[in-house]
Amino acid sequence: MSDETLAPQPRAPWWRSASLIGTIAFTAGIGVSIGAVGLAGGFSPRAPAPAPLPAPASVSVPALPPGTDLATLAARETMLAGKLDQIELRIRDSEASSRGAAAYATRAERILVAFATRRAIERGQPLGPLEGQLKQRFGERNGESVAAILRAAGQPVTLEDLRLALDTLAVRLANDPNDSLWNKVRRMLGNLVVLRQADTPSPLPAERLRRARRALDRGDVEAALAEVAHMPGVSSAESWTAAARRYVAARVALTDIERAAMDTPPPAPPAG
User: Are 236 and 170 in contact (CB under 8 A)?
Assistant: First the structure.
């Protein structure tokens, strides 16, 4: 072995070590930045691109077939327009007919109410639901007649009632209960000889009573009432005369509402 000492290895210059350390630090910084971005969810996504607008639809006009006659088309359009006018006219006529049918249906209902009311009055039965129908259908224009019918229905009287009551009152009708004995004798003597024309009805109470009964038999209560009103004992028959007047007033009122029910309804107004 040589006695001379080993020479020490030469050191790298200091600037080379510093450059290497800086490179490593820079690389490490980039890695740290990339990792942080990844943990935060990455870079923000780009804004979505706007959706493309739909292209306007193209309207295709059908081409007329070859050989089409424009004059023929115009004639067909005119014909169709005429048919449409006819259809519209028929619709208007149908509406007018419907209004007319409704008017005649109302008339039929009024007639039914009037005749049902007469039947109830003739039989001396209560009106029941007919009372409301009378007021609704006839109360506005025939209020007095409706009131007379309702009064008669509240105190019903029939022809048979009047006949029986007249037979019961016959004796009292022939004599005035307020007459003195002298007046009764004078009346009896005066009835022995009665001068009258041949065609004049007899004024004797018995004849008047007979005529009143015949009038009731034929349903003429007004004539029977006139005969009874001229009899000597009429003051004792006030209830009978009141019932007879009520009967007559009810029949006049019934005739009035029947005439009103049968009136022809007004024509339907023309369609506008």
Answer: no
Q: pLDDT tens digits, the chain, 272 residues: what are they?
A: 444 444 445 554 544 455 556 566 666 666 655 555 454 444 444 545 555 555 555 545 455 555 556 677 677 777 777 767 777 777 776 666 666 677 778 888 899 999 999 999 999 999 999 999 999 999 989 999 999 999 999 999 999 999 999 999 988 888 766 655 555 556 555 555 555 555 566 778 888 999 999 999 999 999 999 999 999 888 888 999 999 999 999 999 999 999 999 885 555 455 44
Q: Which of 257, 39, 4 is nearest to 146 (CA)?
A: 257
Amino acid code (one letter) for 9: Q
Local structure of residue 118 (DSSP, 8 states): H
**Minimal CA–CA distance to 172: which of 215, 245, 235, 225?**
235
| The total number of residues written for the chain in this structure | 272
64: left (phi over 0), alpha (psi -120 to 50) or beta: beta
pTM beyond 0.85: the answer is no
Helices 205-217 and 159-174: crossing angle in degrees, nearest 10, is 180
Domain borders along the chain are: 72-153, 158-248
Amino acid of residue 261: A
Rounded to 5°, the CA angle 214-215-221 comes to 145
Helix (H, G, I), strand (E, B) or coil at 136: helix
Q: Are 222 and 121 in contact (CB under 8 A)?
A: no
Q: How far apart are CA 78 and CA 71, in angstroms?
A: 11
**Which 3-state string (H, E, C) describes 77-128?**
HHHHHHHHHHHHHHHHHHHHHHHHHHHHHHHHHHHHHHHHHHHHHHHCCCCC
